[in-house]
Specification:
flat, 75% helix
């Protein structure tokens, strides 16, 4: 009744059959068959019956396949598959597999029957049994049966049946049993079943999902490593599908892989767990749950008892690394592992560690690295190797973390990995570390690489270090390498000693030179790395450092490079602290001579170093307190205070050694060492006073007589320090020896000694005052004039050196002697160059003396140094005023002096570093005026100075100085001449200012620049204004004219362009098209001044233009279309001028068209346009080539039949213009002259004043140009003088003013009436009459002739004389105003 009893009995029976079945098969089969038949047909007997059938199946294995009993047994076995017992069903399946030879003929029938029951039976046990039977049959017949009998196709169809869940469940049963029975033979089909299996994980039926789970477990448990490789990519790629069901199924199937064999498990878990971690963050909750369950499945197969307890923590950390990883790692670190960590454990631990390495928390990264380090002692290396590629990037990143503690733990972890896994597994690590060692980025990267490389080399063994050490040392010392490369290799000496400890001892001697060289490097971070390396050696090998390192540090204390001295001082301090047991970190902020050392430390140092070496070290340390470098002084003072117990006592103990060092340093070639020794000497004098002076001063005097330059220089420096730190009374005691010593040193043949002696003089003067000047400088000044050439030069340099340090005192003493004639220019120049700011107060006397006394170009060039040394205000102001005064031709008649002063100005503006911005207006004004100097050489220097001033200014600053240029040019007293400087050198500097003003200046600056350009063009020769200069002027002007600026800017720009074209003529040819278009456009401007300038420009430009037709076209169209009176008037005026100069070049078509337009304008209502059109007719008439056309024009002008007075006025004005323009043609034409005379007389006699005025002008024109004695014309003028209209009388007077060579009849008729008109009631007529008389009689011969033809009475003559006198006075006044 009990199942376990039945099982035991069943196992025993099967064992008996296995042992004796072959011999007793018949008997046993008969007996078993009998038992089956005798069993009652009840449910209680079913288990016995099923067991008997199984035994019969086992027995059938030993019987002949042709035995009929075997087939019966097979039928009974197939029926027994319905037994609801998995053990029975599995046993039957095995029996069927063994009976394959008997089954084979009926295989298709059996398989079909099993498939039908599998898919269609409603009972679970029957379907389950059919699956086992099918698997047994397939196993017996062979794997090809699946394909031959279409089993797989039927099962795939069933698993995809969406309507009947039993079909899907049964298919899964079949796959499970097939995989279980066939094992790895079924692997090829597993890959094809995966998609269906993944879908079934998300099936809506619970039974199907349970069957899927069981099937996946069996599949995974039977996979080989090759099978894992086949299905794993498909499962992992399924996690990236869009369908959540597929992703969930894949996650569950991946979780089922936890049931793989241990070997396969260790190879697949490193790939599975990271992907499952990604699933935990999926947007679909069921996918997340699937991933979580999969991880739990993996955790469920962990056998390590310590890790089993941590599985929940590990899973939480995988799900939320940011919040849970830290706590999980802490628990892991605190757990004591007794059992080995297997692959499933690592599958959860290593991804957690990987995530932790990616966190920002310092503690988390440190703990993660520590866990990696521990793992290599708790697990097999083959299980860890798959995780190398995952954790190594995080370790590398943490190795360059800013926190040193993290870098240290990561470095040790890398070392452990190399030691545990071997070099072969991490072949790329060493090249990466070496590349990071040379990283150009942060020093943190190089430090981490150095630390990691040290630990890796330690893991590889000292023999690897022996191979690489020569490369490390050579790279650290290679001065051609970049600084960051040397820094990286120097950092190795910080970490290698700490890693290798005693094993690094053989390499210390080789490493020290690299460290010392790094201490002197210009790069600060290299010096820091070298210092840390030295400190590491001192701390780890203090006993050895005394013998090995101390000699190098002693040399470093007196090295020429202050950085080496500073670093050597620090390392020496560390060594002394290590020997004495004192702490160098204590604060030493107190009085200079306070000490913190102890007697015990003193004895320890003496014992370790020996007395002689201790004295030598402390002497160097004490001298370091007076080093020229502040950092060295601070470091030496700190070390001294820490290790010395009593300063005074220690100085007495080391005095002999210290004095010897001081004397040697005073004679050293290095200036810094001599200065430090001198300061130390002064410090000794200050501390010990009278006890050392009697010994030191004689030694120094003797040293000054040495043949060694450095020793004499050191003596001077030492004397300076002694004088500074000694009381005046003590100095006075040794004065008799000090004064000659200083004087002698100032006259030393070596310049360096003289420089040092000047410092001694400074110290002595500060103590003794004016007596030093008399005792020392007076003999030197006497040597300047009385000594030999070599001695005087030395003495001069001595005074110059003294001047350099004490100019405020020395300059007033020597200047009066130097400027006294004859002036020693060489001495004056040298001393002034060294005077500094004290020179400013004496410039007013020095500069004139220099200018007067310079004899040649060599002296002049040497004197430039005086000008260049004047840099700070008020020096430049004073100097400029003196130079202006000397260079002004009005005050200094000597041309050489002016040239010298201008040369000084040029050098000052070219090379002086002084800020001359506030003096630019003065410089511009002065140099521009100097361009008109009588001497060409002065003009050239002035031009160069002006150019230098302009070049000192930034382009954007130039426009502000346009006004200064304008005022300077206006101040030149030359009305029509050309400026000499412009003629010699051109207009470059001035043009630079004006051009910048035109291009970048404000509208006001543009206007002013244009107006100044007019003046510049006027003052510049035409030969200079050609080629490139024309382009530089015209280009900016045209651009300004094309922009939208006010009329003032346009007028000034047009004026400059007109003046330029007038000056250069055909040189402006390249710009004619642009200018022509600009002028024509400006003719339409609303502003009259703009139009007037445009008209003037066209009159100058058109004669130069190769084609005039476009101009006539524009003017004709403008006159036709423009109805505004003022604009049309300007166009008519422009047309008149162009016709006068270029009318002959106009085409016949344009002449005819113009003739029609101008004739038509005679009837316009605007009087000014009528008059202007009439003038144009006169200009056009001169170019009407057919005589009949000309005659027709004149006849038209003489036609008086028109009733409108305005037309008559216009015709009369046209007649005036034609007569003035073509008098010869009128005279030559038959009958035309008489008609013209009659017409003019008629117009003059008109009752309309405007017509009469124009007629009077026509009469005057005929009298002047055609017929000067025509009685009718004279009569008309005479009659008009008696007209009632004052305008008519005024017109007669005005036309008579221009008749300078009037005929006798005209004088006889007009002059009396003009005399009468001088008393006219109208003041305008009265004045005009007087002017007319003056104009007609301005020549003496005309006056005499007049007196003959007029009534020659005394009153008339006197009246004429008085009128002429007034007229001449008026004309002279007008000329002056103009």
């Amino acid at each position: 009744r009990r199942e376990e009893v039945r099982g035991a009995v069943m196992d025993a029976a099967r064992s008996i059959i296995t042992a004796h079945g072959e011999k007793l098969s018949a008997e046993l089969m008969q007996h078993l068959d009998k038992c089956v038949r005798e069993l009652p047909n009840t449910s209680e007997a079913d288990p016995v019956r099923q067991s008997l059938v199984v035994l019969m199946g086992d027995l059938a294995k030993h019987m002949d396949k042709d035995n009929t009993k075997v087939k019966e047994v097979i039928e009974k076995l197939l029926l027994a598959l319905d037994t609801p017992s998995q053990q029975v069903q599995e046993s039957i399946a095995n029996c069927l597999a063994s009976l394959s030879s008997t089954i084979k003929p009926d295989a298709e029938k059996i398989v079909s029957k099993l498939m039908d029951k599998l898919l269609e039976s409603p009972k679970y046990s029957q379907r389950r049994g059919s699956a086992h039977g099918l698997a047994g049959v397939v196993k017996g017949l062979g794997i090809p049966t699946l394909k031959q009998l279409g089993v797989i196709q039927e099962l795939q169809k069933a698993i995809r049946d969406k309507k009947h869940y039993q079909h899907r469940e049964s298919a899964l049963f079949a796959f499970e049993t097939l995989c279980s029975m066939l094992g790895r033979l079924f692997e090829p089909y597993v890959v094809h079943l995966l998609p269906d299996l993944l879908l079934c994980f998300g099936d809506g039926n619970q039974y199907v999902r349970e069957a899927t789970d069981q099937t996946s477990r069996v599949i995974m448990a039977n996979l080989s490593s090759h099978g894992v490789k086949l299905i794993l990519p498909s499962l992992l790629s399924a996690l990236e599908e869009d369908s959540w069901r597929t992703k969930a199924g894949s996650a569950e199937l991946l979780g089922a892989m936890a049931h793989c064999a241990p070997r396969q498990l260790s190879s697949c878990l490193p790939s599975i767990v990271p992907r499952l971690m990604e699933v935990l963050t999926d947007s679909h909750s069921k996918v997340q749950n699937a991933g979580s369950m999969a991880l739990k499945q993996i955790g469920s197969v962990i056998k390590n008892p310590e890790v089993q307890q941590l599985v929940p923590l590990l899973l939480d950390a995988l799900g939320d690394p940011g919040n849970k990883a830290r706590g999980c790692l802490q628990v892991l670190l605190s757990t004591e592992f007794v059992h080995k960590i297997d692959a499933p454990c690592l599958a959860l631990i290593m991804p957690t560690v990987k995530c932790a390495l990616e966190q920002r928390s310092v503690e988390t990264k440190r703990n993660a690295a520590q866990i990696i380090r521990n793992m290599y002692s708790l697990t097999d290396q083959k299980d860890l190797s798959p995780y190398l590629s995952d954790v190594l990037p995080g370790l590398k990143q943490s190795l360059v973390d800013p926190v040193p503690e993290v870098r240290a733990v990561c470095a040790k972890a890398l070392g452990t990995m190399v030691k545990g896994m071997g070099e072969e597994s991490l072949q790329e690590l060493l090249p990466w570390l070496l590349s990071m060692l040379k990283s150009e980025g942060s020093s943190v990267d190089r430090s981490g690489a150095a630390q990691g490389l040290s630990e890796v080399l330690l893991a590889q063994g000292v023999h690897h270090l022996e191979q690489l050490m020569p490369h490390f040392i050579a790279s650290a010392q290679d001065s051609t390498s970049p600084a960051h490369v040397r820094d990286g290799y120097l950092m190795l000496f910080v970490y290698l000693p700490a890693a290798f400890k005693e094993e690094f001892v053989p390499f210390i001697n080789d490493a020290i030179p690299s460290i010392l060289k790094g201490l002197a490097d210009e790069s600060e971070y290299i010096r820091d790395s070298a210092l840390r390396g030295g400190q590491t050696i001192v701390n780890h090998y203090s006993d050895m450092a005394v013998e090995v390192f101390l000699p190098e540090l002693e040399k470093g204390l007196f090295d020429d490079n202050w950085r080496i001295r500073f670093s050597s001082m620090q390392l020496l301090g560390d060594l002394l602290y290590k020997i004495s047991g004192l702490s160098g970190k204590m604060s030493t902020e107190s009085e200079e001579d306070d000490n913190f050392g102890t007697e015990e430390a003193r004895h320890t140092i003496i014992e370790a170093l020996g007395l002689e070496r201790r004295n030598w070290v402390l002497s160097g340390l004490y001298m370091g307190r007076s080093d020229v470098a502040l950092l060295v002084r601070q470091a030496a003072l700190h070390v001294w205070k820490v290790v010395v117990t009593n300063t005074a006592r220690t100085l007495r103990e080391i005095m002999p050694t210290l004095i010897n060092l001081l004397l040697g340093s005073l004679a050293n070639r290095n200036f810094d060492k001599r200065s430090a020794a001198a300061r130390t000497l002064g410090d000794l004098v200050r501390k010990l006073g009278e006890r050392v002076l009697p010994e030191v001063i004689p030694m120094l005097e003797e040293g000054l007589r040495s043949q060694e330059l450095q020793k004499r220089q050191g003596v001077c420096i030492g004397l300076s320090e002694i004088i500074q730190h000694t009381s005046k009374e003590q100095v006075m005691l040794y004065l008799d020896s000090l004064l000659p010593t200083v004087r002698s040193a100032l006259c030393d043949k070596e310049a360096d000694v003289r420089v040092a002696a000047a410092q001694t003089f400074d110290s002595l003067h500060s103590t003794l005052g004016h007596r030093t000047l008399d005792e020392v400088l007076t003999p030197l000044m006497n040597s300047l004039s009385s000594g030999e050439e070599g001695e005087s030069e030395v003495a001069l340099d001595g005074v110059r050196q003294v001047m350099a340090v004490k100019s405020n005192v020395v300059l007033p003493f020597v200047i009066p002697r130097l400027i006294k004639p004859p002036v020693d220019t060489k001495a004056l120049i040298l001393l002034c160059s060294a005077a500094g700011e004290a020179l400013h107060r004496h410039l007013s006397s020095i500069v004139p003396a220099l200018i007067r006394s310079l004899k040649d170009q060599e002296e002049l060039e040497s004197a430039y140094s005086v000008v260049l040394c004047v840099q700070e205000e008020p020096g430049p102001s004073i100097l400029l005023q003196e130079l202006f005064q000397a260079a002004a031709s009005g005050q200094v008649d000597d041309g050489a002096a002016r040239l010298t002063a201008m040369s000084f100005l040029l050098v000052m503006c070219e090379k002086s570093p002084a800020n001359l911005t506030e003096h630019v207006p003065q410089l511009l004004a002065f140099t521009i005026r100097a361009l008109n100097d009588p001497l060409d050489a002065v003009c050239e220097k002035a031009w160069l100075t002006l150019d230098a001033v302009v070049k000192r200014l930034k382009p954007k600053e130039l426009p502000r100085y346009t006004g200064n240029v304008r005022r300077a040019l206006a101040s030149l007293s030359m009305r029509d001449g050309e400026l000499r400087g412009f003629a010699l050198k051109g207009v470059g500097p001035v043009l630079s200012i004006l051009k910048e003003g035109l291009i970048t200046g404000t509208p006001d600056e543009k206007e002013e620049s244009s107006r100044v350009l007019v003046r510049v063009i006027h003052l510049t020769p035409t030969a200079v204004l050609t080629g490139r200069v024309v382009m530089l002027i015209a280009g900016p002007l045209i651009r300004v004219l094309g922009d939208r600026y006010g009329w003032q800017v346009k007028v000034a720009t047009l004026e400059a362009l007109v003046e330029l074209v007038r000056k250069v003529g055909m040189a402006a040819k390249p710009f004619i098209p642009q200018l022509q278009a600009s002028y024509l456009k400006a003719l339409n401007d609303p502003s009259q001044p703009v139009r007037v300038q445009a008209m003037a420009g066209l009159r100058e430009l058109v004669p130069l233009s190769p084609r005039v037709d476009p101009v006539f076209n524009e003017l004709i169209n403008g006159i036709k279309k423009n109805e505004e009176m003022a604009i049309r008037q300007t166009m008519l005026q422009a047309l008149c001028g162009i016709l006068e100069s270029s009318g002959a070049r106009a085409s016949e078509k344009h002449r005819s068209e113009l003739l029609d337009i101008l004739v038509a304008l005679q009837g316009t209502a605007q009087e000014v346009n009528r008059i202007e059109s009439a003038k144009c007719l006169g200009s056009l008439a001169a170019h009407l080539t057919p005589p009949e056309q000309f005659a027709g024009l004149v006849n038209g002008l003489l036609d008086r039949r028109e009733a409108d007075w305005a037309v008559l006025q216009s015709r009369a004005a046209g007649l005036v213009a034609v007569v003035r323009a073509c008098p010869t043609r009128i005279a030559d034409a038959v009958g035309l002259e008489e008609r013209a005379i009659d017409g003019a007389a008629a117009y003059a006699s008109s009752d309309r004043v405007p017509v009469s005025v124009q007629g009077i002008e026509a009469v005057a024109a005929l009298l002047q140009h055609v017929s000067g004695t025509k009685p009718s014309l004279i009569q008309v003028l005479s009659q008009c003088l008696e007209s009632e209209s004052s305008d008519v009388r005024l017109a007669v007077c005005q036309v008579c003013t221009d008749m300078h060579d009037a005929s006798d009849p005209l004088l006889r008729a007009i002059l009396p009436k003009l005399l009468h008109a001088t008393a006219d009631s109208n003041s305008a007529v009265k004045l005009a009459a007087a002017e007319a008389i003056g104009g007609m009689l301005q020549e003496e011969k005309v006056l005499q002739r007049c007196l003959k033809v007029v009534d020659n009475t005394t009153g008339t003559a006197n009246q004429l004389q008085e009128i002429l006198r007034k007229a001449k006075a008026t004309n002279k006044y007008r000329q002056l105003n103009n």
